[in-house]
Design goal:
Layout lengths: L5 E6 L3 E10 L2 E9 L2 E11 L4 E10 L8 E5 L4 E4 L4 E6 L2 E9 L10 E4 L3 E13 L4 E13 L3
Antiparallel strand pairs: 1-2, 1-6, 2-3, 3-12, 4-5, 5-6, 7-8, 8-9, 9-10, 11-12
Length: 154
């Protein structure tokens, strides 16, 4: 399998940087800047039909602050896009297209509030990972979360 290093853009309330740490034929991992002390997290697909873009959203709470509102981090994943003609979120990787989610009308008449239904073909998971930093003088380990998008049905 071939490994690539890719720089991806993460956007939450403010823009942050994320780096893809591994890319295999059917798996992409994106290193986030989320600290290891998050709890009650879940991942979902998001999209913007106007520009044909899709991303993964991580909804989470900080440990010891569970009573506060949920926070959201948006991660751009290389190859993930919104197909405006078909109403699908697709992942184009390893020379193939995989439908990750379908976008449908919720039936409430509100524009831009469509239901995103995962197809089960793209598994989203968060995995704790230790990242080593080096400032030229010292090295230190920092625990972070990596988002993995894995194609389960090629």
């Amino acid at each position: 399998m071939r490994h690539h290093i890719i720089v991806l853009l993460a956007a939450a309330m403010a823009t942050t940087m994320a780096q893809a740490v591994a890319s295999e034929s059917h798996r992409l991992s994106v290193l986030t800047d989320l600290s290891s002390d998050i709890t009650d997290h879940r991942s979902a697909f998001g999209y913007n039909a106007d520009v044909g873009r899709a991303w993964v959203e991580i909804h989470y709470r900080q440990k010891h602050f569970e009573e506060y509102p949920e926070q959201r981090l948006r991660l751009a994943v290389d190859g993930l896009a919104y197909d405006t003609e078909r109403g699908l979120i697709v992942l184009q990787a390893a020379g193939a297209e995989t439908v990750c989610a379908a976008v449908g009308d919720r039936g409430d008449g509100r524009p831009r509030h469509a239901a995103v239904t995962p197809t089960g073909a793209c598994d989203l998971s968060l995995v704790a990972q230790t990242v080593t930093h080096d400032d030229g003088f010292d090295t230190w380990a920092v625990p972070r979360w990596a988002l993995t998008v894995e194609v389960t049905h090629p």
